[in-house]
Amino acid sequence: MSAFEYQLQRSIRRKTLSIVIRRGEVKVLAPVFLSKATISEFIVAKTPWVLQKLQTQQAWVDQNEQGQKLFIEGEPFLYLGESYPLSVGAASKSEVILHNGYFIVNVSNRVKAQNRANHIKALMQDWYKQQLSDYLEHRIEHYADVIGVVHTGVNVRAYKRRWGSCSSKGQLSFNFLLMMAPAWIIDYVIVHELCHLTHMDHSPRFWAKVQRFYPRHKEAKAWLKHEGGNLRLD
Q: How far is CA 93 from the centre of its chain?
């Protein structure tokens, strides 16, 4: 009997054995031609590794219940509404890559162990900021042309209690955490702020304009109210 519960999935296309662990669930992926004895031997050999991964994932589950991020192996982070587990490694330089369903964070060998979590957090924040800047570049121009407004600049920053803002000088600012939300939510915030270029309030005329160019605005507002608290890095 295995030291942990798992689900066995066989495939005619698979050539090798592997184990995938997501949210405390273990899946053993195997070719159809392998015997149960061979699979059992593989599972026994991988047991210490699996138990360590399960323990790590349980640690972030317990911590997340208290509302804190640990920035450790297996911890989930959002991108465009989808959840991706963190995979942490060492390298000559620090970087963040979203690849094959994982947030791969390579941490420079020069980073001290006690600074590791804060370093990963800073890397992730910079990555989200860059991704949102790239997204906004083409989406803002699209909606600005459709609505018929002109802005004077776009900023991506860290806000605690707002998703975006529009200054009296036409400067647009957006919370970098929006990159964690689905694309249709980001687009709603873009339209919302662009409409402020002609109505610097939340009057009926403002909401009528938002309704005209983004009919799903009520649904988007409700989503942000109920799900916005999950868009976080702390």
A: 22
